[in-house]
Each structure stands twice: as structure tokens, then as C-alpha cells.
Amino acid sequence: MADSIEREVELNFNAFQEKVGDLIKTDRGKFALMRNSEIIGIYDTLRDAHTTGRSFYTDGLFSVQVIETSPVNLGMFSYAVPLAQPQ
What we know:
The protein has 87 residues and is α+β, with helices and mostly antiparallel strands. It has one domain (2-74). It has two helices and three strands. The protein has a three-stranded antiparallel sheet with strand order 2-1-3. A hairpin with a 2-residue loop joins strand 1 (31-35) and strand 2. The longest helix is centred in the first third of the chain and has 26 residues, at 2-27.
């Protein structure tokens, strides 16, 4: 499973790099939820993007990218690792 997640993140990041030039014009500082190399949605906060991804993609195969001109490491979010569930 970890290999699948890493591959998804890598493919999404490569696709994002191709699109960021257009996105930066209107959505700088927002967050793109991605799956299968496609942008699923644009969100104002990292939390909103990640929560939506977890809700729709329970297999964890999604990633979130911040819309900026240079790569930003979002920590565990950039690797699409799901957050622990509250107990």
C-alpha cells in the first residue's frame, strides 16, 4: 500500500507541476486536491482539502499540493498519509 501511495503522490506532483503556472494566476496560496494526476478541487485551507480527500478516497490514494511558484513540503500531507482517526 505504501508503494501505491508514494506512486500516486509522485504522479500527482508531476501533473501539478505542469498546471501550476495557470493555477498561480487565480489560486495562489490555496490547496489542490489531486487524484490520478487530476485536480479534483481547489480549497482555501489544507485542512479542507485533506478532509475532503479522506472522505472521498478511503484508500488514501490522493495528495494535496499548495499552489505556489516553488515546491513547498507540506510534511505528511505531501506524502498523502492519512491522519490518525480520533478515538
